[in-house]
Amino acid sequence: MAAEAEIVRLHDQRFYRLWLFYLAAAMTMFSDAGMVNHQLQYVRRRDSIPMTRDFMFEAEIQLRAVPA
């Protein structure tokens, strides 16, 4: 909040309010663990994206197996 004027100068008042809301939600989530994050993806054709997110977990397992 101390940098409000600078943030508003760089972006706008709407951005500043959204940023405060984001920070308040993050603080609530971390302190109370009572928040859920949903991600929606809209597409024109249903078959243009995977129906599950399993591909991400499979890729993560493969990446973890590669020596650093």
Explain this structure to me?
The protein is an all-alpha fold and 68 residues long. It has helices spanning 4-10, 13-32, 54-65. The model has no long low-confidence stretch (mean pLDDT 86).
Number of strands: 0
Overall 3D geometry? extended
By DSSP (H or I, 4+ residues per run), the number of helices equals 3
What is the helix fraction of residues, given as a range?
Answer: 55-70%
Order of helices and strands: HHH
Structural class: mainly alpha
Which residues form runs of ≥5 with pLDDT under 50?
none
- Give the strand content: under 5%
Cα separation of the termini: 41 Å
Secondary structure topology:
Layout: H1 4-10, H2 13-32, H3 54-65
Would you summarize the structure shown here?
The chain is mainly α. The protein has helices at residues 4-10, 13-32, 54-65.
